[in-house]
What we know:
The complex is a heterodimer. Chain A is an all-alpha fold. Chain A has 16 helices and no strands. Chain A is globular, with a radius of gyration of 23 Å. The relative contact order of chain A is 0.12. By secondary structure, chain B is of the alpha+beta class. Chain B contains 7 helices and 10 strands. In chain B, a hairpin with a 2-residue loop joins strand 1 and strand 2. The C terminus of chain B is likely disordered. The interface between A and B is large, with 114 and 110 residues.
Amino acid sequence: xxxxxxxxxxxxxGPEKGIKRWIFATNHKDIGTMYLLFSLAMFMIxxxxxxxxxxxxxxxxxQFIDPGxxxxxxTMHALIMVFGAVMPATVGLANWMIPMxxxxxxxxxxxxxxxxxxxxxxxxxxxxxxxFMPGGAPAAGWTMYPPIVLQTGPAFxxxxxxxHVMGVSSIMGSINIIVTVxxxxxxxxxxxxxxxxxxxxxxxxxxxxxxxxVLAGAVTMLLTDHYAATSFFNxxxxxxxxxxQHIFWFFGHPEVYIMILPAFGIVSEIIPxxxxxxxxxxxxxxxxTASIAFLSFIVWAHHxxxxxxxxxxxxxxxxxxxxxxxxxxxxxxxxxxxxWKGSMTFETPMLFALAFVFLFTIGxxxxxxxxxxxxxxQYHDTYFxxxxxxxxxxxxxxxxxxxxxxxxxxKWTGHKLNETTGKWHFWVATISINVTFFPQxxxxxxxxxxxxxxxxxxxxDFNVMSSxxxxxxxxxxxxxxxxxxxxxxxxxxxxxRVWDGAHGLxxxxxxxxxxxxxxxxxxxxxxxxxxxxxRFAESS
Amino acid sequence: xxxxILRPGVAVWIGSLLALIAPAALADWELNMPRGxxxxxxxxxxxxxxxxxxxxxxxxxxxxxxxxxxxFHRRSNHPTPAKFSHSTAAEIIWTTIPILILVxxxxxxxxxxxxxxxxxxxxxxxxxxxxxxxxxxxxxEEGVNFFSTLAAKxxxxxxxxxxxxxxxxxxxxxxxxNPLVVPVNTKVRILLTANDxxxxxxxxxxxxxxxxxxxxxxxxxFKAEKVGTYRGxxxxxxxxxxxxxxxxxxxxxxxxxxxxxxxxxxxxxxQFAQQLKESKSDVTPVAVEAAAR
Lengths: 540, 293
């Protein structure tokens, strides 16, 4: 797709030729493309690890791998998917779309943008290289709880270094997004006229800046506990292993929203386009996002109810967690109200966005169930939790990212989307993902703990189903790659508007978009008047 | 339009339904949480079902509205979109109603939580020390102690490439050499700690799980109301053989329990019968409540 951008370059100082264009990239589109391709590569690697996990769990008994390698797969799958696939994908979309949505020529800090991208391949080369180290890759879970994580072999300092480098990359990316959004909006675009994707990313960027340093502190304390004889998390030296969990989840819960808030933004762009109706309750969407962000910092201990907290603590974290259902509910209700009395069509991006609303909400329901502390004592660390977070992350965050890619791809490449192959991908992915993760609810309720390589025979049937679903879903991603590749290569020429219901500044640019998005600040299209002077009434 | 959406959809649906029907014919599927055999696990089960049905009702309403809209507000049915984009009344309603539901839910949840955390006045206490990858049980007053590890048959079958079909092993991965034995209708307090890394002790039919943390002592309690054998597993990733440290608790009536103490080398087990009776006459509020059910 990027070569297409280059050939449609309208600028005198176009990109460098060849590899230098990418190594020294400062253009937001080039960097966005690299983020997205990197994320796709990590998604396939992390997904391959999931296939290994599901192959081992296909039948009871150990068939392929030993328990140590199984634990490594569980750990690496999570680290790669969270930090390598989902987060860079949303940063890639932000890089591509935020300047185009706010009427800016580029990101505010292009050289830092280059650096924040190029740190990622460094971090993941380090992380993935641990697979080949003596003693194997980290196997203590992505949560890195001590003392178990301190039993990691030579891979341990490399894991910590990789987490640090990812963190630096995320923080720089966030600073860039905040500066861009606050300073480079076209005149007339007040904060409350920004597209919702820009809003959710602005809030996400603040979450990242607040949360990532906490993670950095936690892993640094692990490092000194391991090598410098400190005892932050060692009870024998006066420390407390549970303190790590508090610090980790103080980062970890905002991290959950770091992955899902941009997804909310993408879906809030897509649904109005294909419902041909303005987003319902724009300002309550913004306030709900901000409330979710705030609440995400005061609920962390619900990830660790079983460590034995004081009753008052358990009650507080139960009530605060239940509160998150309110703003999240507002978002879902607003999406449904946007569809209500719209004039909907169901192109591929819309299908993914609708599946997001439906399946993310199912993940939200199981989240509400998990919030109830006394019942969480049963759910905790079982496949019920695995089902819950995969529902919010895969048909949640990942589907929203796929929806966003399909939605903006014609703007990037200049070619119309092939709806037939897009819909095949959608249906295969949606059905297989439910076959994969829905039975895991039952497994968890029936008592199957997570992170085990082998299981009692009464869990066999649902594991067989789950594995079959996972293999199909894994293969369905080849359709996603094919669709992107085919669209980048050629196809029917897309109009500037691409989707007849599309609205916002990015659709006023040519398709594919020029190398420097807006060289002069565009006139702010007033969203209100744009929707009022409806283009759709005529079609009836 | 409808045709266009459904064509790939129908093919995939039929394929996946066929894939699902095959195992369905054989299956004896456990879909839900066990009720368990204590007053608390029953309360927890009821809370689980309550929050589940709340979610189902909300789901039916929200998804009902969504699918109604998808079918009736598609362009072919509804070519001119409405113009509204906010409604303060609607937004107040759908903020307030969830808050009310949550407040209503919070009361029973808090009540059960308080009951769970009341581990005072136990009739007997067992100290459980976890290590990689076994449990050590220590009856503090009776002076009995032993290790409990994965049963030999399971252990043989679970080796990589053992060639033994797990289906031929009774209670595969959920069987131990030395189970924990406790008397029925007795409030048993479990004190939990660990030697090396964090583990978690969990027998779903007796109680929720609780972490065993090196350097700290945690506690949980249960009062089993039915004689039987209850099985569980370590529930916190604890290293290489985390999947292979099951827990088995045998709940026996008092006579059998005392006989078991005798087998374990306790002289004059009858003294503990007396002690258990005295302890039980000192009734705690939770015990009264449990007895009333």
